[in-house]
Amino acid sequence: MEINDLRIFQIVAYEKSISKAALRLGYAQSNITMRIKLLENKLNTTLFIRNNKGTVITPNGEKLLKYADKILELIDEVNSEFLTPKISSTIKIGATQTISASVLPKLFYLFHEKNPEVSLTLKTETQKNILDMILKNELDGAFISDEITSSKIKKVITFKEKLALVSSISIDSINALQSPIIVNSDADCPYRKLLQKWLSYNNSKAAAIIEFDSLESILRGIDEGLGISLLPKSILPKNHNFFIYDLKDEFTKLEIKFVINKNLKINPLLKSFISVTNNHLLNSQ
C-alpha cells in the first residue's frame, strides 16, 4: 500500500469530491480515480460510492479513514522531526472582517518591523471557512471567537476585546431601544450574535435589522443614522462623532483566540508572529 494513495484517499474523503481533491492536489481527476481504484483492489472493498450528490464514503471507507488519519499524522510527525523544513518567506493569517480591522493592522506593522523581508497575507473570511482553511493547512494561523470543536485545532493565544454599543444619535435608555440594529450579513458573525444575545437578555426587540456585508458599510450606516451596532472600540475612527455606550456583564468584551493546526510544526516565522502578538497584548494591558 502506497502512502501517497492513503493521502489521496484521505483528501477525497474530506473533500467529498474527486474533482475538488484533484484541484487541491494538482492531479488529473483520472489519476485520482485510478489511485482510489487500485487501493480498493488491494483492500478488496469499495471505499466510495459516486452519485449525483458527490462522492460518498462507505462504511469500510470510514474504517480506513480512521487508520489513514493516524498513519499520516505519524508520517508527518516523523518528517517534521527528521527533515529540515523549507523556510517560507510568507505568513498567511486568517480573520473575520471586523477582527481583522481591530486586531491585525497593529500586529502586522509590529511583525513587519522585525521581519521586513517577509510577505504578509491576510485572508478575510467567515469563521467557518477560516477553520476549514486551518484544517487544510491553507493558513499559518487565524483569529477567531468561536468555540473550538475540532481536536485538530490548537489554541495558542487568548485575549479579550473591549466592545461598545455605537450610535450616531443619543439613546435615552439602551435597555429600551427604538432604533434598528445594524449587523453583518453573516449569521455567524460574533458581534451580531452577541448583540442579538444582549437584546434577548434585556427582553428587547430591535425595531428592524439592517444587514451589511462590510465593516465600512456598517460604520457608514451608523454615521447616517440608520441604527446602532455592537463593535470593538478599537475600530472606531479617532475623530468620530458617535455616542458610545458601555454594556455590562458578559457583553463588555469578546474573547478572541489565535489558533493553529495542531499537527502543524511552528516554523520560525509563525513563532515570531506569536511572540509579537503576545508582547503587544502584554504592553496593551
UniProtKB/TrEMBL annotation:
Residues 1-58 form the HTH lysR-type domain. InterPro entries: LysR_HTH_N (IPR000847), LysR_subst-bd (IPR005119), WH-like_DNA-bd_sf (IPR036388), WH_DNA-bd_sf (IPR036390). The keyword S-adenosyl-L-methionine does not apply. It comes from the Bacteria. Keywords: DNA-binding, Transcription, Transcription regulation. Belongs to the LysR transcriptional regulatory family. This is LysR family transcriptional regulator.
